[in-house]
Amino acid sequence: MGRLDGKVILLSAAAHGIGRAAAIAFAKEGAKVIATDISESKLQELEEYSGIQTRLLDVTSREQIENLAKEIERIDVLCNVAGFVHHGTILECEETDWNFTMNLNVHSMYLMIKTFLPKMLAQKSGNIINMSSVASSIKGVVNRCVYSTSKAAIIGLTKSVAADFIEQGIRCNCICPGTVDTPSLRERIQARPNPEQALKDFLARQKTGRMATAEEVAHLFVYLASDESAYMTGNELIIDGGWSL
C-alpha cells in the first residue's frame, strides 16, 4: 500500500527540479499524477514512470487551465510549483520584471486555485499545496526583491484559502524551501559573471554546509499530500537547513 493510493494529484512545473522530484515521489506512493509544464521534451521523460500522465500547460493562461479542467473529473491534490527567480534589488527590477514575476509566481496560482477549487468543493474534500520560499515574509534576502515579494504573497494566499474553506473540507498549505540544488539554480549560477564565486556564495550561507536536494523537498510534498497531514492547514512549512534561524 502506498501513502497516496487512489489520490489524483495535479502538479505544475513538473519537468524540472522540485516539481519533477515531487511528481516521481507521488507516483511511487501510488498516486495518479497529472504532471504539467511548458517544456514538452523534459515532460515526456516522466511518462516512463507508472502512474504519471503528462499535459502541456502554461499556468499563466486562463484558457489552457480551463481546458485542462474539463478533462479532469476528480482532483484530490493541487500542487502549484511554477515560479521564477529574479535577481536584483528594487532599483534593478524593471516594471516588466515585476509584472512577469508576479504573473508567473502569484497570478498563476490564483488562476489554478480558482479553476480547480470548485471541483474540490463539490467533492467536499481537497488539498492545495503551494510553493513559497524562505525568501518571503520569513526572511529578508539580498537581491531578491520581487521574488521575495511574490513568495510572501503566496503565504498570504495560502492562509486566506485555508481560512475561507476549512469548514468545507479544503486544506491549503505552502512549502518554503531555502536554497535547493536544481537545474534552474545551476543555470543562474552559470549566468553570473563569476560562476565559481557565485557557487561559493550560495554554499557559504548554508549552515549545514550544503544545499537541499529536490528529493528532500519532495518528501515534504508527499507528507502534505497524504492523509498523515490531515490536521494541518494554513501553514508555511520551512525546509531550509536552518538558514532562516
TrEMBL record:
Record carries keyword Lipid metabolism: yes
Catalytic activity: (R)-3-hydroxybutanoate + NAD(+) = acetoacetate + NADH + H(+)
Entries under InterPro entries matching the protein: NAD(P)-bd_dom_sf (IPR036291), Sc_DH/Rdtase_CS (IPR020904), SDR_DHRS6-like (IPR051122), SDR_fam (IPR002347)
CDD domains to which the protein is assigned, alphabetical: DHRS6_like_SDR_c
CC terms in the record's Gene Ontology section: cytosol
GO MF, one example: oxidoreductase activity, acting on the CH-CH group of donors, NAD or NADP as acceptor
Subcellular location: Cytoplasm
Pathway note: Siderophore biosynthesis; Amino-acid metabolism
Coarse class of the protein's main subcellular location: cytoplasm
Family: Belongs to the short-chain dehydrogenases/reductases (SDR) family.
Protein name as annotated: Dehydrogenase/reductase SDR family member 6
